[in-house]
Write a structure and sequence with these properties.
Chain A has 292 residues and is of the alpha+beta class. Chain A is built from 6 helices and 9 strands. Chain A folds into 2 domains: 53 residues, no CATH class; 205 residues, no CATH class. In chain A, helix 1 crosses helix 2 and helix 2 crosses helix 3. Chain B has 2 domains: 80 residues, RNA polymerase sigma factor, region 2, helix turn helix motif (Rna Polymerase Sigma Factor, Chain: A), CATH 1.10.1740.10; 92 residues, Arc Repressor Mutant, subunit A (Orthogonal Bundle). Classes of the chains: A alpha+beta (292), B mainly alpha (174). At the A-B interface, helix 1, helix 3 and helix 4 of A face helix 1, helix 2, helix 3, helix 4 and helix 6 of B.
């Protein structure tokens, strides 16, 4: 570094700070800054001027629907705009189980229920042990996402536990079309919030109609006319997807399903819930790891 | 921030969308392109929130920088003249206008706004062309019909004056 280098840098510093210095000169300038703290500070001061210029631009109202399109793009749902009615039945059990899920104990909660299922998953790397035999999982291995209906209404929540033995669990409450009493599922920020309306599997409890198939365990009551039987596909970041199971929803469009399976956190991107005719009932995107 | 729930994302978007869209539309002057830039800004900010360093300025400044960079990239990709002369004059009028609520809202912003207003017209044009529209010194020289060296001098002189009002305590650094 020489004074000449610094003189040259000072001559181009304003353009560098404003981001308009052409490529070759920019590369040379950055190389100089890397080894010259005084010039670096000079450019930082000028960068503040550039930021100040941008801050003078007036705000402008974006087109209608902008925030919805942004949250769609982020794979996030819009939160419920009203206080939703919490069904009374099963609240305590669901809350306890959902808290357990949130802190990683759901692995054996679902696993235990799966133990009694007629068709254990062949994809499971190892069968889930009895309650208490597995160490509590880390919440860092728990992926969670809201299930969103095509109209962006939150209709449930999906959890995927990526440690071994891994599992997938979801609770769904589609509600009836036009219903004003749909689930609060997905409205909360974590598994401990919301979805109190849905029965969940807990050790020693096999509630529901037992109408699940394949590798999982499911709960529902028969006769939901709009959706009936639904299937779930896990989506991967490369655009492919894989069928992971099917279950039935009850008369109110409610159901839950879980199964042990290996979930690769690096390739799983989300999930889709499909009706028997292939139409999409809900989608979920695992953007954010549960870290609460 | 990235660990937040959908509600946090929505609150984040609501809080900053006005500012983000304002920057995008000012630079690209195309509502559809501006919306795409604004969406990209929030996507980038949300997915890469860990990149945000609170020591480097406010979230607003950080978002503004992301928006501005994306908008400049879009303008450059379009390869069109970044700004028509009459649009530039209009923008200069906007950025130097000082309604009372702006003057009181942010001290640093009001000082720089006043400083831009006091610049000789040709310097103000040069620094806005460079700082807001991302025009290079060469583009400014061609647009203004002046030698390249003159364009560079105008940018540098204007920036020097603006720097003085933003950080008077460091004005004697060089």
């Amino acid at each position: 570094m020489t004074d000449r280098d610094c003189d040259w840098l000072r001559a181009v510093a304003d353009e560098l700070a404003l981001g308009i210095l052409p490529g070759q000169e920019r590369a040379e300038a950055i190389a100089h800054l890397d080894r010259c703290p005084a010039c670096r500070e000079h450019v930082e001061q000028l960068t503040l001027v550039g930021d100040g210029l941008i801050s003078l631009l007036p705000g402008s109202e974006p087109p209608e629907g902008f925030e919805t399109r942004v949250t769609d793009r982020l794979g996030l749902n819009r939160p419920a705009r009203r206080r939703l009615r919490r069904p009374r039945a099963g609240v305590a059990v669901a809350a306890a189980a959902s808290i357990a899920l949130g802190f990683g104990f759901g692995g054996w909660a679902v696993g235990t229920a799966v133990e009694g299922a007629s068709a254990p998953s062949s994809r499971s790397s190892q069968p889930p042990g009895p309650p208490g035999s597995e160490p509590p999982g880390s919440e860092h291995d728990l992926l969670t996402a809201s299930l969103l209906a095509p109209d962006h209404r939150p209709v449930g929540r999906i959890f995927a536990y990526t440690a071994s033995p891994g599992w997938v669990y979801m609770s769904v409450h589609l509600g009836r079309a036009g219903s004003t009493t749909d689930s609060q599922a997905g409205a909360g920020s974590g598994p401990e919030a919301g979805y109190g309306s849905v029965p969940v599997p807990v050790p020693g409890s096999r509630s529901g109609g037992g109408s699940g198939s394949g590798a999982g365990v499911a709960g529902s009551r028969a006769g939901y006319p709009e959706a009936g039987r639904v299937s779930c596909r896990l989506e991967r970041t490369d655009g492919t997807s894989v069928h992971i199971g099917a279950f039935s929803l009850d008369g109110a469009g409610r159901g839950y399903w879980g199964a042990p399976m290996r979930v690769d956190p690096d390739t799983v991107s989300g999930a889709r819930l499909l009706a028997t005719d292939g139409s999409v009932l809900a989608t979920a995107h695992f953007d954010v790891r549960q870290n609460q | 921030m990235a660990a937040g729930a959908p509600e946090m994302a929505l609150a984040f978007v609501r809080r900053f969308q006005h500012m983000v869209f304002g920057i995008a539309i000012a630079v690209v002057d195309d509502p559809q392109l501006a919306e795409d830039i604004a969406q990209q800004t929030f996507e980038r900010a949300w997915r890469h929130a860990q990149v945000y360093d609170s020591r480097r300025g406010s979230v607003k400044t950080w978002l503004g920088t992301i928006t501005h960079n994306l908008a400049i990239d879009a303008v450059r990709a379009r390869k069109a003249t970044p700004v028509a002369p009459e649009d530039l004059d209009g923008l200069l009028g906007i950025v130097t206008r000082t309604p009372e609520q702006w003057a009181l809202a942010d001290d640093a912003a009001s000082r720089i706004r006043a400083a831009v207003a006091e610049l000789p017209r040709e310097q103000a044009r040069a620094v806005v062309m460079a700082g807001i529209y991302g025009m290079t010194a060469r583009q400014i020289s061609e647009s203004e019909g002046i030698p390249l060296g003159t364009a560079k001098t105008r940018i540098r002189t204007a920036m020097g004056k603006l720097r003085t009002v933003l950080a008077p305590e460091r004005a004697d650094h060089d």
